[in-house]
Write a structure and sequence with these properties.
Elements lengths: L1 E5 L2 H5 L7 E6 L19 H10 E10 L5 H10 L3 E9 L25 E8 L6 H8 L26 E5 L6 E5 L8 E3 L3 H7 L6 E2 L5 H5 L20 H6 L12 H11 L5 E4 L6 H8 L3 E6 L2 H18 L1
Parallel strand pairs: 1-11, 2-3, 2-10, 4-8, 8-9, 10-11
Antiparallel strand pairs: 3-5, 4-5, 6-7
Helix pairs in contact: 2-3, 8-9, 9-10
Length: 322
């Protein structure tokens, strides 16, 4: 089931039944005025997250990206809405340029910003009804999919690190034998892009799930039927660049997340056959990811241009993802 809704997410969610979705995986506005976009002048309010809480099943998880400068406001608004903050996942990457004002003359070598290298993801949960076990039995929500998101490493890699084969280990505490999946390491609260810079920082990259940023070809796949679009550039283009940008086809959303990353996050917090909600759908990466993981998906987007892109990508994903 795919249900895409054009409109303001607060108003649209008010029309949805309570306790009707299993997880929320979303990339909301960071409140950084990114590229001058009017929709990015503030983080979502506690009232918006309260509606997310209402439509989410008891024990359901919310994963919400944020910016490093406004993560505290995002997490506080989510907590004020009634969610329990469970953790924070760091998505770390090597690409990116500092937006720094560099000084001259006697202060040559000084600037005003660090290079961006991570985006935090708030991990929150709607309060349980009873124990975790009772909540999971009643609603299918409340726990995370550890074995389905193990990180394959070397000989441990089974079915891409997501397999269910098991091996027997000897417990030193009680000398009893027990089994655990050989599908890799326990999922950590760090995800990286596999770049040299990050691997050097993190040490062995094999212990963490990794996913590169979305490539241009990935961003644009499924969008071939869209009309010619301007890329909404706000800074002055270089010589002869304006015409090139004005004739580009495809996905012009400025903050597209990689599909492999969104697949991993959907799988981490959504029960088999569950419904994933993205109230800030953007260009639809979460919807494509949910479809690939065989989850149902509800997506909400208020910008007509981005909604059109998401609609193309999500409904065409079987043609280009498989």
């Amino acid at each position: 089931m795919i249900d895409l809704k054009l409109g303001d997410c607060f108003e649209v969610m008010q029309t949805m039944p309570q306790n009707s979705v299993d997880s929320i995986v979303t990339d909301p506005p960071y409140g950084l005025s990114f590229m001058g976009k009017h929709w990015d002048h503030g983080v979502p309010s506690a009232e918006v997250w309260s509606e997310c809480l209402r439509v989410l099943k008891p024990g359901g998880h919310l994963l919400a990206f944020a910016g490093t400068r406004t993560q505290h406001r995002m997490a506080t608004a989510i907590e004020d809405a009634g969610f329990e903050i469970r953790d924070m996942i760091a998505w770390v990457y090597g690409s990116g340029f500092p937006k720094s004002h560099n000084l001259k003359d006697d202060w040559q070598g000084w600037g005003t910003a660090l290079k961006p290298a991570l985006e935090p993801i708030t991990v929150a949960r709607k309060p349980l009804i009873g124990t975790v076990a009772a909540n999971v039995l009643a609603h299918g929500t409340g726990a995370i999919n550890v074995d389905g998101c193990r990180v394959g490493t070397g000989d441990d890699r089974v079915d891409g690190g997501m397999g269910s084969e098991s091996t027997t280990f000897l417990s030193p505490a009680n000398h009893k034998r027990f089994e655990r999946p050989t599908g890799g390491r326990w999922p950590a609260n760090l995800i990286h892009d596999g770049s040299e810079e990050v691997v050097e920082l993190a040490g062995s990259a094999a212990r963490f799930f990794y996913c590169a940023k979305a490539s241009r070809s990935e961003r644009d796949k499924g969008c071939q039927g869209l009309e010619v679009r301007n890329n909404m550039r706000v800074n002055a283009p270089r010589k002869n660049e304006e015409a090139k940008y004005a004739t580009k086809l495809g996905n012009n959303h400025p903050t597209v997340k990689p599909i492999d990353l969104m697949r991993y996050l959907c799988r981490l917090v959504t029960p088999p056959g569950g419904i994933v909600l993205d109230p800030f759908m953007g260009s639809g990466s979460t919807g494509v990811a949910a479809g690939e993981e065989e989850f149902s998906f509800v997506g909400i987007e208020r910008e007509q241009g981005y909604f059109d892109i998401a609609e193309q990508r999500i409904y065409k994903f079987p043609d280009w993802m498989r």
